[in-house]
């Protein structure tokens, strides 16, 4: 049996996945109106190609990529553009959205399917992935095509697929692996060909035995590795360490360790794009939490409002104290239910009033538990103090930019200190100051 090396630090929160991990994915019909953001990815906002009053087809490009680190946006339905205007976004700031009235006709743009896309050459695969608007669907949203084209001379040994889904509550990737193993394996092969990887490994936490079995049945020469269930097992650097024993240098990128890491959802989207000719216009979203009536996983068109998702999941079962986009560890609290689903929305969680209370924080007792769990080997208590006291140079020197924002330190702290809040603050300030001076 393959011996798996563990990563440093981490925690074991209750995974709370039982309400949705064995429920099949349900395809949700598109709503009457969708708001499709121009920025659903890391990098530059896409540039609109349509105007108010234009008729659009399902799958039509409605905004083009603006440069290499950007991604085009496609219409999830056929219908009419009724506005291009700001709408609330999941990260708190508003996003410019193309608002489309759905005509319910499902009139597709002309598609270019391929019966055996693995026969395509690497360049064509990368080009089609870029054209389909595919971005990292695990949450990062980095455009997939540039990740598959590392700098000249770099040899990629491994394509690693991340099937950990280590955030509590989320089961979208879990269900995708159980129900769409064929597509995930095909997507992995296509991406490995695109980046020249010699070996493919899929890492899945061992709390998903049915997903591991489904993938292994289709995997052929691809290795499917069961990893211990420990948060944040799915962090890019942590996954590389666990699956290959290699380390990515401080502030470095996976290709510096000979690896490309992609999410299983991204592999699914790549297969759909190259085999079926369908751009990225829908994704699987987990809707769950103590305040949700009937928790489930939906295959949902991009641009669907959170309130439509919650209604489809039986509405609120109690007065919600907090609604979160993504998982509870890294996701952000929402102030509007009009926020649309984007390519990176993995979950919509709602919790009751009692669970949503923020505990009062107490002075640090120097117990070092935050240090013990930090997977980036940082001193979170120091970074918090530097962030709080606006000592940006010290925060930088102590590695604030290496923080992966996993939230383990905040979770474990017995004094309930808002460590991650101040570390994020410090990171944002350091990056802004460095941008200004460059
Ligand atoms: S875990 Fe909390 S109390 Fe303990 S050292 Fe870190 S910040 Fe201080
Ligand atoms: S300092 Fe950053 S990387 Fe370390 S535990 Fe806290 S949030 Fe995670």
Quick synopsis:
By secondary structure, the protein is an alpha/beta fold. Helices cover 28% and strands 20% of the residues.
Strand content: 15-25%
Alpha plus pi helix count = 14
Please give the radius of gyration in angstroms. 21 Å
Distance between the termini: 50 Å
- Structural class by secondary-structure content: alpha/beta
Count of DSSP strands: 17
**The named CATH superfamily of the domain at 117-276:** NADH-ubiquinone oxidoreductase 51kDa subunit
- Stretches with pLDDT under 50, minimum 5 residues: none
Q: Characterize the largest beta sheet: strand count, sense, and whether it forms a barrel.
A: 6 strands, mixed
CATH architecture classification of the domain at 117-276 = 3-Layer(aba) Sandwich
Mean of residue pLDDT values? 95
- Helix content, binned percent: 25-40%
Small molecules in complex: iron/sulfur cluster
Shape: globular
Query: CATH topology of the domain at 117-276, anyone?
Result: Rossmann fold
Strand order of the largest sheet: 1-14-13-17-15-16
Under CATH at level 1, the class of the domain at 117-276 stands as Alpha Beta
Describe this structure in words.
With 438 residues, the chain is an alpha/beta fold. It has helices at residues 122-131, 144-147, 172-179, 181-195, 209-218, 236-244, 264-276, 306-312, 353-356, 369-373, 380-388, 392-397, 408-412, 419-437; strands at residues 26-27, 33-37, 47-48, 55-56, 61-64, 73-74, 79-88, 94-102, 158-163, 199-205, 223-227, 259-263, 282-288, 296-301, 320-325, 332-333, 347-352. Helices cover 28% and strands 20% of the residues. A 6-stranded mixed β-sheet has the order 1-14-13-17-15-16, with helices on both faces. It has a 4-stranded antiparallel β-sheet with strand order 2-8-7-4, with no helix packed on it. Strands 11-10-9-12 form a 4-stranded parallel β-sheet, sandwiched between helices. Strand 13 (282-288) and strand 14 (296-301) form a beta hairpin. Helix 1 (122-131) crosses helix 4, helix 4 (181-195) crosses helix 7 (264-276) and helix 11 packs across helix 14 (419-437). The mean pLDDT is 95. Bound molecules: iron/sulfur cluster (2 copies). Residues 373-376, 378, 380, 383, 403-409, 419-420, 423 line the site of one iron/sulfur cluster.
């Amino acid at each position: 049996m393959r011996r798996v090396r563990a990563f440093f630090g981490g925690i074991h929160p209750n995974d709370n996945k039982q309400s949705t991990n064995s429920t099949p994915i349900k395809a949700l019909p598109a709503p009457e109106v969708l708001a499709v953001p121009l920025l659903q990815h890391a990098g530059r906002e896409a540039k609109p190609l349509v105007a108010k009053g234009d008729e659009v087809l399902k799958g039509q490009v409605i905004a083009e990529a603006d440069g290499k680190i950007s991604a085009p946006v496609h219409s999830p339905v056929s219908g009419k553009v009724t506005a291009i205007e700001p709408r609330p976004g999941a990260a708190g700031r508003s996003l410019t959205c193309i608002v489309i009235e759905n005509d319910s006709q499902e009139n597709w743009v002309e598609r270019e399917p391929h019966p055996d896309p693995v026969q395509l050459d690497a360049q064509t695969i990368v080009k089609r992935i870029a054209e389909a608007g595919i971005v990292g669907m695990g949450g990062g949203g980095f455009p997939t095509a540039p990740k598959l084209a590392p700098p000249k001379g770099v040899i990629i040994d491994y394509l690693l697929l991340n099937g950990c889904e280590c955030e509590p509550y989320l089961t979208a990737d879990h269900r995708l692996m159980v129900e769409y193993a064929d597509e995930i394996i095909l997507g992995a092969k296509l991406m490995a060909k695109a980046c020249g990887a010699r070996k493919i490994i899929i890492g899945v936490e061992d709390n998903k035995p049915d997903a591991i079995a489904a993938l292994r049945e289709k995997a052929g020469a691809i290795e499917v590795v069961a990893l211990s269930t420990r948060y944040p097992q799915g962090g890019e650097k942590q996954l590389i360490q666990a699956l290959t024993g290699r380390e990515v240098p401080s502030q470095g990128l996976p290709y510096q360790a000979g690896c490309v890491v992609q999410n299983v959802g991204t592999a699914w989207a790549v297969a759909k794009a190259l085999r079926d000719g369908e751009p990225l216009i829908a994704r699987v979203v987990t809707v769950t939490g103590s305040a949700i009536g009937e928790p489930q996983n939906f295959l949902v068109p991009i641009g669907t409002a959170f309130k439509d998702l919650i209604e489809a999941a039986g509405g609120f079962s109690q007065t919600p104290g907090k609604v979160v986009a993504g998982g509870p560890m890294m996701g952000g609290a929402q102030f509007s239910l009009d926020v649309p689903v984007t390519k990176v929305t993995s979950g919509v969680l709602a919790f009751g009033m009692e669970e949503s209370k923020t505990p009062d924080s107490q002075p640090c007792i120097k117990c070092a538990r935050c240090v013990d769990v930090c997977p980036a080997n940082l001193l979170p208590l120091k970074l918090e103090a530097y962030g709080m006291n606006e000592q940006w140079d010290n925060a930088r020197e102590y590695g604030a930019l290496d923080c992966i924002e996993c939230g383990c330190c905040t979770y474990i702290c017995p004094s309930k200190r808002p460590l991650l809040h101040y570390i994020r603050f410090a990171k944002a300030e350091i990056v802004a100051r460095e941008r200004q001076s460059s």
